[in-house]
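One example given next:
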Amino acid sequence: MDDPRTFGVVELNDAGIITKLVEKPKMPKSNLALAGVYYIKEGAFLMKCLDQMITTGNKTNDEYTLTDAIMAMVTEGVKLKTFQIGNWMDCGSRIGLLSTNATMLKRLKENTEIKYRFPNTIVIEPVSIAENCRISDSIIGPNVSIGEHTIISTSIISDSIIGSYSQLETATLHHSVIGSDAYLKGFSQSLNIGDSTEIDFS
């Protein structure tokens, strides 16, 4: 990573063995970020390290981190090595999540020919619309994922993720993330709201 400060960072020796792991360091000594994919054979020992962290209250940035537990294993002499991944998408931010969603939808479109039909509605692929959605008088897509049992009416939505059991009325959304069980009426812009939120702009 060009700037790994918001990730776990790993340092290696010449043999590729991990010598140090640090969660979100302010001054990283390496640009190798942890992508959050692990294969650990010493599972029981990892659990012991996690349990000891909780017992002693050993936190980093007020959190118990897996990075610290793995570092405890390294300190105790367990030899761990890294592997590189060819393609990794960061879903830790709204922009990263929406970019990943768009990429995955394009891959889905290549493998399936799903057609959606809703009253007076235009669907611009790629999109993913879960079961039991009621959509009317709207334009959906491209790059939109909608969870199940969501109701959308008189809206224009592009490059967005809409959670399950949500309801949108007269909304124009782009580059937005709407949580599950949310209600939104009369809004035009980019928005990021969590689960069980109700907003009425009308």
Notes: The domain at 94-200 is CATH 2.160.10.10 (UDP N-Acetylglucosamine Acyltransferase; domain 1). The helical segments are 43-56, 66-75, 94-111. Residues 2 and 49 are 31 Å apart (CA to CA).
